[in-house]
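Fold this complex.
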Amino acid sequence: MKISAVSEDSVLVTFADAINDTLPRRIALLCNRIEAERNDWLVDLVPSYTTLLVIYDPVRIDFRRVEAYLTRSLGMPREPDPESASPDPTDQTSHDIPVYYSPESGPDLEWIARENNLSIDDVINHHTRRTYTVYAIGFAPGFAFMGEVDPAIATPRKGTPRSRVPAGSVGIANQQTAVYPKASPGGWQLIGNSPITLFDPTNLSLLNVGDVVRFHAVSRERFLELGGEL
Amino acid sequence: MSGLRVINPGARATVQDSGRRGYRRHGLSAGGALDIHSFSWANKLLDNPANSACVELLLGGFEAEAETDMVVAVAGAATRVRVNGQPQNGWQTVQLSQGDRFAVDPTRSGRITYIATPGGFDTATWFGSRSVVVREQIEGIEAIQKGDILSPVHATSRYQPRRVPERFRGHYSDRMTLRLVPAAQYSQFNQDDLLRLTTSTYRVSNHSDRMGFRLEGPALERVPTGIISEGIAVGSVQVPGDGKPIVLLNDCQTIGGYPKPGTLGALDAGQLAQRLPGQELEICFANVADIQNERVVFHRFFSESCWHSDGYSLSWR
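Structure:
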């Protein structure tokens, strides 16, 4: 655990040097704890894979005091030992996201199958079988980086990004998966499309760092019924 | 409500206040006024609360008609404004009568000008702020268009004429030094590269906007490899594989994986944001406590100083 000054108004808390799927949960818990204290100096929090950026108002507090505060917060209630204390599954938000997997909604589905010597159904099964953790939100509002994708279907980004990826597109980039909240340029390999809303200005991001996510396949009809567009 | 009816927004005009708080974990940018120095003076001219929304003009060239008697204040790059064609100086309040044509001339040095009005402009609030981040393409959060009506929060038809004292005005043709607080990856940079960064002359590139400013100059040669994506502080200098530094500003993405040797404070970021393509600058490293102290003094000045009745001088309370 390391706390370092990053700018006149922020510090970076580094939890570990490598990505692991227990970190997002710990980072989210620290976020929630800091937010619950309603410190008047707190401006923003940016959780990511292995870090938490804490942005503060330098007029109200200085680096040394933020550092001391964070050291205290990190040290106080020890994180529950994953072995002994059974983590309460109810306080971890989980999502089940419907996806219409098909070449018409996922233009790279056939290519990923071919590239990995799999059938299209295999690719879908590999993608729906796992439970993913949200590691970070970024790139665009509500864009959640999730992992880890089964190595059998992990595929690098496209050499040339598409100038327009439709909203709802479900993509793979190496061992990560994500859903595009809205149409944008993008280089992820697209395997399907989801009709759900990932970001709107009232409810903000559906997915948050530390949440767990599963995907399930739906038919074309069900996809359209749920509001999906092709 | 009535106010300024926009005839020509110029190259780009957006409403900005001090930006959003608490929304970056949803992937939303901070937004907010790029240059807090001239933004604060525009509001100070009208004794506005520090966070009041101003119109942020890129390169001037703005034109509007006053639909009612009203007052505005101008600070930043524009040194000349016009009321019905009659020139007046920038960095002061401007009294408008109903039907007056108000224009901000295109700027010759400097990039950004703020227009303030009593209580700020009363535009839609999103994510706890009136700041507009065009890049996110969220419906309803848009740049100012021809025909928009920009109304003041407080309808004030007359106001004491005021001018910003000469010594406090910005001069954006000056060569500047960007002071960086060493950031998390400072020690991963090669010593020769850090020396190159702090002894070379860099120039503002054409690729400069509210998201970030690219700097042209000697490329760093042994840039650390990408890092695990982490939250980005506004003012961060990131160095991608090509070795050319990019200073990230208010509308930048919330997380990123390029290594960062350091971060500009808000005051230096504002001065940089005022620079035009081709302008030269230098880079040095500074102590976080020094930059914080300067920011605190800046804040105190604006919150604790009062105008004298001459409308041209101020004293501390």
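Chain A touches chain B through 45 residues (CB under 8 Å).
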